[in-house]
Write a structure and sequence with these properties.
Histone, subunit A, mainly alpha, 73 residues
Length: 73
């Protein structure tokens, strides 16, 4: 599986308030987000299949994120 690009991770950390970000820090965030994203994606596929669809829709991803991240919409 291709890893998430470093530049967007660098920007996310900067947007969160960091003055400086190491390449390793950006890579670590990318790995963490990839892991979380894969869990959400798998859950979204389950939501779509449960609804009798092959297509994963935004609402499937939103419901999956709520479940995986433990937050309410």
């Amino acid at each position: 599986m291709e890893r998430i690009k470093v530049a967007p991770m660098h920007k996310l950390i900067k947007d969160a308030g960091a003055e400086r970000v190491s390449k390793e820090g950006a890579i670590a965030l990318g790995k963490a987000l990839q892991e979380i994203g894969l869990k959400i994606a798998k859950e979204a596929v389950d939501w779509a299949h449960h609804a009798g669809r092959k297509t994963v829709k935004a609402r499937d991803v939103e419901k999956a994120a709520e479940k995986i991240l433990g937050r309410r919409g």
